[in-house]
Specification:
By secondary structure, the protein is of the alpha+beta class. The protein is about 35% helix and about 25% strand. α1 runs antiparallel to α2, α6 runs antiparallel to α8 and α7 runs antiparallel to α9. The protein binds flavin mononucleotide. Flavin mononucleotide (FMN) binds next to loops.
Length: about 325
Amino acid sequence: MIRFIEDKDEKRKISREVLEALKEWFEVDESREQYIRESADQPFWAAYENDVPAGFLCLKETGKETMELAVMGVKKDFHRHGFGRKLFAAAKAYASVNGYDFIQVKTVRSGVYEDYDITNEFYKSLGFKELEVFEEYWDAANPCQIYVMSLKSAMETMKARHSYRGAFVQEPVPREDLIAIANAGINAPSGCNKQTTELVIVDDKEMLEKIKALIDPPVAKTAPAMIVVLSKRINAYRDKCFATQDYSAAIENMLLAIVELGYQSCWYEGHITDDDRICDRIAEVIGVPGDLGVVCILPVGKALEDFKVPPKKAFEERVSFNRFGEK
Ligand SMILES: Cc1cc2nc3c(=O)[nH]c(=O)nc-3n(C[C@H](O)[C@H](O)[C@H](O)COP(=O)(O)O)c2cc1C
């Protein structure tokens, strides 16, 4: 089990316990003590097996857009239990959700010490790419390999996206970001290119309040901006209407753009299209013409709280190869 640790003493205790058990990698007392000291103020995750700390990882901000995997260790008895990967997954999700673009990590380059060769292979298997080797960064006997990972690839953003239903930071979302998000939406595919989805970006405080006042039970109460998704139910060909598919593709594109730009959102459709037809009242408030209907709202803003990642079924339960049910 992976836990995010906030208590500074607990962080120092766990990092000491783990690093002192890994003297092959952390043999210099002075730098080990520095890792332990600094870990207290860093985002910190611990891995447990039967309530025993098996390892930990902490991150350090090295630039406005970059987090460094500052230190990570898993006790030898717990190697090959998948803790390293789980710790890294938690840290990566945190960096991504908090708007960072890159994660870097430094280690001794491959080909110098066997123990560090394993570390290099581990980082590469996580998806890190070689950035540069600085021969003298530490000293000539320990050439420093810097690895980097972009958190802003489409694949990473898809992994990082989840519905956020918490409170938002009270700061406006710049128009250029809202425009980039809306562009992602209208660039989505649509059946026969009918482009049946239209959008209204709402960032005016008064208008936001009017919309929020209609939503019962309330959602997105503190969102500093919102995108209202409109759909035109026309046929793409013969009697085939793809309007639902069209706006779904547009919404997913926008959710990904929102996360990529460091914001959070949630696909609020069920909530406003139920029997009480909140969507129609929203349409009235923002002046939507009769041939279009409001189908969804997407709040946009920076997350103030951590959010829950819902469990997803296992890959094998939902995906087959070649024939249904074949693994
Ligand atoms: C068509 C559709 C309608 C949705 N409507 C709502 C909604 O009204 N309220 C809500 O809180 N979440 C809504 N969601 C979000 C889902 O609950 C959410 O995607 C799902 O629980 C999976 O969680 P994840 O987005 O974090 O992966 C909707 C999602 C879809 C695709």
